Amino acid sequence: MITAERALLVLCSIILFVFTACKGNHNSQFSNLNLEYHSPVDYDIVLAGNFGEPRPWHFHGGIDIKTDNQEGKQIFSIADGYVSRLTVNKYGFGNAVYVSHPDGLTSVYCHLKRFAEPYEKLFERTGWRDTLDFRFPEGKLPVKAGDMIALSGNTGHSTGPHLHLELHDTETWVMVDPMEKLAPFIADTVAPQAHSFMAIPQAGEGVFNGGMSKQTVGFGQPDTKKQHTVWTLSRDFTAWGRVGFALWADDYSEATYNHYGVRETRLLVDGRCVFRSDVSGIPVSCQPEVNQWGDYDHWRRTRIWYMKSYREPGMRLPILHTDFSGGIVNFDQERPYRLSYILRDYQGNQSEYHFTVRGVRDTRVHARSHFPFHLLNAYQLYGQCLWPLKTIKQ
Questions:
Q1: How many whole angstroms separate alpha carbon 341 and alpha carbon 238?
Q2: Considering the entire predicted model, what is its pTM?
Q3: Which among 75, 216, 300, 393 is placed 20 to 30 Å from 308, CA to CA?
Q4: Interval 30-49: pLDDT, tens
Q5: Distance in angstroms (rounded) separating the CA atoms of residues 320 and 308
Q6: What is the DSSP string of 100-156?
Q7: CA-to-CA distance for 109 and 229, rounded, in angstroms?
Q8: How far apart are CA 73 and CA 6, in angstroms?
Q9: Of 140, 151, 135, 122, nearest to 40 (Cα)?
């Protein structure tokens, strides 16, 4: 006869095995290949937008490189490979070049004014409403890193001249952060900055500062562009039961006024990480889930994204990693809880924000234990793979 203790041990062993088996890096198939990458432009890169910025119903799928608000800048292939596709469209990417690389990645250059002459000769444009799509086999149109492939423009769904550059896993078409390959060419010594956090008591199960509805709290940090920032709120808060948190934050660089999405966010409770987001690779099929990760209703009212530091039920986004409570903080003891947000960009610039929440018993909710899963919270699921990265190839 199997005792309750033995059954629990078996359950814990199975869970640990499953999540350990899933603990791989989705970039492993190409990250070890030694392919040299170059800048797509012949001047210092300044970004107007970065990878993974939250937008309604989708993430920003690449980086936007400024072209001094001009068209006609030379665009170069960022690595060896071959031109695998050329598209022309009034909408979307407009004129776009796809270059497939031998390390399993494909780079996509969008909103172009026109292609390099060898590619323009392959077809005839009939007018501004053209919708063309040409695909080419390996070996037909080889390119080397640094070869000129196009001129920058403002075609398709573009609000001003710039280069939109995407990087994809060729096999799965998962969107990959171009910073993985182009970081050496982009200057950035400014840490991300948090503006405020949102406390979200779970319906019927949590209270924050005496209330059961969402509350936002500003950090009150002055706007400064620093490489490292540590900020502590002097005000204490109270909570009881299950409370989720969300964060409004932006990344910056020294070269421009633009703000960007944050590459990595961690929420720590008493020094233990309960949530981490690492915006490194996003399956195309998960694009609409940005509205679940972010508070879409709040964005509609304010145009401000508060990104949740917990996983909503049913979310598949592989860039979100939590403890076994899904990132929800359970205030079930009458004591101080030390919460910290740690923000980091790809270049390693980091900021920290600390505040204290005191557990104060409230008879309106009953703090519930999450046995047996609370026994496993120390095992951080940084490598968890809750959704296959295989997506429909476009």
A1: 18
A2: 0.86
A3: 393
A4: 445 689 999 999 999 999 99
A5: 10
A6: E-TTSEEEEEEEEEEE-HHHHTTS----TT--EEEE--TTTSEE-TT-EEEEEB--S
A7: 35
A8: 67
A9: 151
